Amino acid sequence: MPLYEHVYLARQDLSAQQVEDLTKAYTAVIEGLGGKVTKNEYWGVKTLAYRMQKNRKAHMTLLNVDAPSAALAEVERQQRLSEDVLRYLTVRVEELEEGPSAMMRKADRDRERDDRFGGERFGGGGGRFERGPRRDREERTETAAAEE
Q1: SS3 93
Q2: If you average pLDDT over every residue of the chain, what do you get?
Q3: What's the CA angle centered on 48, arms 44 and 49, to 5 degrees?
Q4: What is the pTM for the complete model shown?
Q5: DSSP at 126
Q6: Is CB count within 10 Å lower at the N or C end of the chain?
């Protein structure tokens, strides 16, 4: 059977439980039509690059699917009819990726970086971004005048 990666974006005002229920429903459709979902990853609520149907954020979910094309066609049909799904994308792949996807690896990498620099993201308290005391404007103008 062909292999697919299927990602869908659900409205931001849904709860994580409702998104999980949507995923279970789509998984049931795929399994009912002779396929199987080999991996299911919930990526969380992410900010969108542009507004979609008045939403600035969306719940994102990845499904790795081993199923006939008719099963994916039925899932896409149901997602088109659902008001909760903003967008979806299905890509046929040669082989399914083992382990965490790139989005999950990025989250792990970000978490490790935050731990390494004391939990501060942009220089609040971790030594790498600290600067010395700032010179007053008068000191700079005096220095510039002395150099001339």
Answers
A1: strand
A2: 84
A3: 150
A4: 0.70
A5: -
A6: C
Residue 84 lies in a domain: yes
pLDDT 10s digits, 20-67:
999 999 999 999 999 999 999 999 899 999 999 999 999 999 999 999
Q: How many domains does the chain have?
A: 1
Q: What is the DSSP string of 27-91?
A: HHHHHHTT-EEEEEEEEEEEEEEEEETTEEEEEEEEEEEE--HHHHHHHHHHHHH-SSEEEEEEE
The CATH number of residue 98's host domain is: 3.30.70.60
Is residue 109 in a domain?
no
Whole domain around residue 11: which residue ranges?
A: 3-103
Query: Is residue 135 situated within a structural domain?
Result: no
Residue 74 tokens, joined: 């039925």
Structural domain includes residue 114: no
Angle at the Cα of 105 from the Cα atoms of 103 and 106, rounded to 5 degrees? 65
